[in-house]
Amino acid sequence: MNERFTGDIVYASVENPFNSGLRHKNFAFEVSGSLPILEERALYYGSYNDCDDWFSVISFGVCLILLAGSHPNARGHIMTQDELKRAVADAALAYIKSKLENDTVLGIGTGSTANLFIDALAKIKGQISATVASSEASAQRLKSHGIPVYELNTVDRVDFYVDGADESNHSLQLIKGGGAALTREKIITAVAQEFICIADESKLVQTLGQFPLPVEVIPMARSYVARELVKLGGDPIYREGVVTDNGNVILDVFNFSIEQPLAMEEMINNITGVVTNGLFALRPADVLLLGTAEGIKTLFAE
Ligand code: 5RP
């Protein structure tokens, strides 16, 4: 049997060992990235309808069984972080798909997981009437797929916001901003009716702060803000060469164990010159879709 994986569609062909002459059967199975193939509904595009003999039926079954063993999510395969991100992006698509209406406005985040979500969204772009993006990069990616992107000021609401995170605790309070898009992400989060966070399991932590906390700062206030962050117990490092979509700079605060995310978010935002910081505690995620080796877990705030 020959098989190859191309995203969500798996192709397979079987040669008939019982007959002389050239007799092949070609199959394509659509699978979700989140579950082993045998647990998924397999859609069959092959020649089943023009199945003329038992060979077709038997080879179809053989393909299914063999592919189940060789699919990346099959038992025994350790999924990479990228595979987990892809699985969770697919899960987010499934999560919102059933809730989409004609006038749904989707907020789209930034980063590698959000990029995979954008690519997944392209498959149903005919059902997407409006998106707003949390960065120029995401807006570009959406447009490249032909998905309509609007300015936030031109829409009266955002129904869902889908975005990744650098860390989440069990209250679904987050650290974000690894991609320097934290301010626009926080603005869309504030507007969104439902914030769906998508992340691989490495992002779930007990206490926030192992990931350096990004703080977006007006350029002329950089040194002053850094001194104030030191007073709060952190070690701020200037992210050199990075200018945000808003024309500002980023300080990454290392060695911060953030026991009180709500208070810390407010304290940092109160430093003059800070635009915003990457703590999403005042407005945490509503749901966290977490890609794990055991499959997708859906977490709500504890
Ligand atoms: C960008 C972000 C991202 O959501 C965060 O950095 C996670 O990125 P990735 O999905 O690439 O791991 O906040 O500003």
Would you mind describing this structure in some detail?
With 302 residues, the chain is an alpha+beta fold. It has 2 domains: 9-69; 81-302, Rossmann fold, CATH 3.40.50. 27% of the residues lie in helices and 26% in strands. It contains 7 helices and 17 strands. It has helices spanning 54-70, 81-97, 112-121, 136-144, 182-191, 222-231, 261-269; strands spanning 2-6, 9-15, 24-30, 43-44, 105-108, 130-133, 158-163, 167-168, 174-175, 192-200, 213-217, 235-238, 249-254, 274-277, 279-280, 287-292, 295-299. The strands form 4 sheets. The chain has a 6-stranded mixed β-sheet. Helix 3 links the parallel strand 5 and strand 6. The longest helix has 17 residues, at 54-70. The chain is globular. It starts with a strand and ends with a strand. It binds ribulose-5-phosphate. Residues 109-113, 163-166, 176-182, 185 line the site of ribulose-5-phosphate (5RP).
Largest sheet: 6 strands, mixed
What characteristic shape results from the CA principal axes?
globular
Q: What is the spatial order of strands in the main beta sheet?
A: 6-5-7-10-16-17
Number of separate helices? 7
Beta-strand content: 25-35%
Domains, number: 2
At a glance:
With 302 residues, the chain is α+β, with helices and mostly antiparallel strands.
Question: Which key phrases capture this entry?
Answer:
302 residues; alpha+beta; Rossmann fold; 2 domains; 6-stranded mixed β-sheet; 4-stranded antiparallel β-sheet; 7 helices; 17 strands; 26% strand; disordered N terminus; binds ribulose-5-phosphate
